[in-house]
UniProtKB/TrEMBL annotation:
Annotated keywords: Membrane, Transmembrane, Transmembrane helix
CDD domains: STAS_SulP_like_sulfate_transporter (cd07042)
Domain (STAS) ranges: 414-493
Membrane topology designation: Multi-pass membrane protein
Organism expressing this protein natively: Alkalimonas mucilaginosa
Residues annotated as transmembrane: 16-36, 43-61, 73-106, 118-143, 163-181, 193-210, 230-258, 316-346, 366-395
Domain of life: Bacteria
InterPro entries for this protein: SLC26A/SulP_dom, SLC26A/SulP_fam, STAS_dom, STAS_dom_sf
Protein name per UniProt: SulP family inorganic anion transporter
Locations listed in the record: Membrane
Entry-linked Pfam families: STAS, Sulfate_transp
């Protein structure tokens, strides 16, 4: 790994502290996800180490911390259940998912995430912040953590009934240290790490009875060979594709959050390749699959992490615990971690938009609030999917409003020498013609052709800046309808490429007689056809 010439001692210190703090936060999460998946606590730890190290080395986001995540754990647990409890075949799902992620990266699919609108990102970020806070309420009070924010809220009365004042004191003390530590100190010793050391030491010396991380698995993982079954191949591939898509969205959204905090830009396709390589390694060592983890990434950045070295330190710290240093971390109180994470949750809220929400257009606010609510109450990926669909609908609606159609007389198109030809009526079309605007355009055209007083109608498309296939077919139907009413329709274009594209369709209405490239051409064809035009 090449280190840039501007890499300083301060940056190194930040990367070490950031990676160490992220590793400490990742430890209980990895163990918990391993247990929740049904593969065991060790599988969660193996996945955090393998994916965290490989993604840090080969990924495209410098400060990203990768490891097992909630959504990926749920899919992996579902895979074990769907495959009859076969852990080896579930690892085949992880292998397929990793290969597909690499394929998505090579196909440059990752760049599409940059088109996610800001209200969607804002709602996602604020939702993640609230989730972090809700999930830490129980550990902060010394109670057992809940697996989801909704359950955390539902169990709040029970949590209050089980309140451990010593744990609450530790958590509040941790939060106060993280919040009030001056920047001149945090520059050399990050406040989360300072709070972790001081409060853990206080709990040990005072012999307070509070929940701690507890025993940590030790020893290197064994080699596992994923097993494939032709009878189950369809299911394995489907679950692998689900893992790949979920991991892709999860990782790239975390990359966007990291970009927002650090004011940098990640390389999405490289990130997908790094994530895919990491998950492939997980499949061979019996590790849980994962993705870029938003909470751990934010912890890393807040603690000083600035380069990919911080992600490597996070993984190497977990490896050191696996190789025998586990007892040192086993005594860390969960309330201390909760105090750190509550501050992280507050920091990740998107105050930039929240402060200006009164002046933000209502449609954007609705999108942001929808994504926020779905993130907290339903699912992260569903929230982003719905947000993107709403944003696309808003853009479609706004673009459709810019399309216009109106009937007008044009002296340039007057044909006075033909007594049965009172003139050529012009219907001007302007703006983008696409699937979102054509329904309204057709309704307007139905009203226009009811007041026409001539045989020749020209659809002037010179003001059209875009025409998709839906619009092409709609215009074809429009011309056929006009011909059925014994009218002579023509299209006036100024784009030769569009003209050739329409001719290539070999339509009965898109012909050299109906497609005109100038007003003069329109006049000439109107004069030459006159009474001689055949009525359909």
């Amino acid at each position: 790994m090449a280190i840039h010439s501007s890499y300083s001692a301060a940056t190194l210190r930040g990367d070490l502290f950031g990676g160490l703090t992220a590793g400490i936060v990742a430890l209980p999460l990895a163990l918990a996800f391993g247990v929740a998946s049904g593969a065991g606590a060790a599988a969660g730890l193996y996945g955090a180490i393998a994916l965290g190290l490989v993604a840090a080395l080969f990924g495209g986001t410098r400060v990203q911390i990768s490891g097992p995540t909630g959504p990926m754990t749920v899919v992996f647990a579902s895979a074990i259940a769907a495959l009859g409890g076969s852990f080896q075949m579930a690892l085949a799902v992880v292998l397929v998912g990793g290969v597909l992620q690499i394929a998505l990266g090579l196909l440059k699919v990752g760049g599409l995430v940059r088109y996610i609108p800001y209200p969607v990102i804002s709602g996602f970020m604020s939702g993640i912040g609230v989730i972090i806070i809700l999930l830490q309420l129980a550990p902060l009070m010394g109670a057992a953590p809940s697996p989801s924010p909704l359950r955390a809220l539902a169990k709040l009365p029970d949590t209050l009934a089980e309140l451990n004042l010593q744990a609450l004191a530790l958590g509040l003390m941790t939060f106060a240290i993280v919040w009030f530590t001056p920047m001149r100190i945090s520059r050399y010793l990050p406040s989360p790490l300072l709070a972790l050391c001081l409060c853990t030491l206080a709990a040990v010396l005072l012999k307070w009875q509070v929940p701690v991380i507890g025993d940590i698995p030790t020893g290197l993982p064994e080699f596992h060979l994923p097993q494939f079954s032709l009878a189950q191949w369809s299911l394995i591939f489907t679950l692998g594709l689900t893992l790949a898509l979920l991991g892709t969205i999860d990782s790239l959204l975390t990359s966007l959050v990291a970009d927002s905090i650090t004011r940098t830009r990640h390389k999405p396709n490289k990130e997908l390749i790094g994530q895919g390589l990491g998950n492939i390694l997980c499949s061979f060592i019996g590790g849980l699959p994962g993705a870029g983890a938003t909470m751990r990434t934010v912890v890393n950045v807040n603690a000083g992490g600035r380069t990919r070295l911080s992600g490597m330190v996070h993984a190497l710290f977990l490896l050191a615990l696996l190789l025998g240093l586990g007892p040192l971390a086993a005594q860390i109180p969960l309330a201390v971690l909760a105090g750190i994470l509550v501050k992280v949750g507050l920091d990740i809220l998107d105050y930039r938009l929240l402060k200006r929400i009164s002046g933000t257009p209502k449609p954007e606010v609705i999108i942001m609030l929808s994504v926020f609510a779905l993130t907290v109450l339903v699912d992260l990926v569903i929230a982003v999917g719905v947000g993107v669909v709403l944003a696309m609908g808003l853009v479609t609606w706004r673009m459709a409003k810019t399309a216009h159609i109106h009937l007008e007389d044009d002296e340039l198109l007057d044909v006075p020498d033909d007594p049965e030809h009172p003139g050529v009526r012009l219907v001007r079309l302007s703006g983008p013609l696409f699937f979102g605007s054509m329904a309204e355009m057709l309704d307007r055209m139905d009203k226009v052709d009811q007041v026409l007083d001539t045989h020749d109608i020209v659809l002037d498309c010179r003001g059209v800046d875009y025409m998709d296939l839906t619009a092409v077919f709609a215009i074809e139907d429009m011309l056929q309808k006009l011909q059925h009413k014994k009218l002579r329709p023509r299209l006036l274009l100024d784009d030769d490429a569009l003209c050739q594209r329409l001719l290539a369709l070999q339509s009965a209405v898109f012909t050299e007689q109906t497609l005109c490239m100038s007003v003069e051409q329109v006049l000439e064809r109107c004069r030459t056809t006159g009474k001689r035009i055949s009525k359909p």
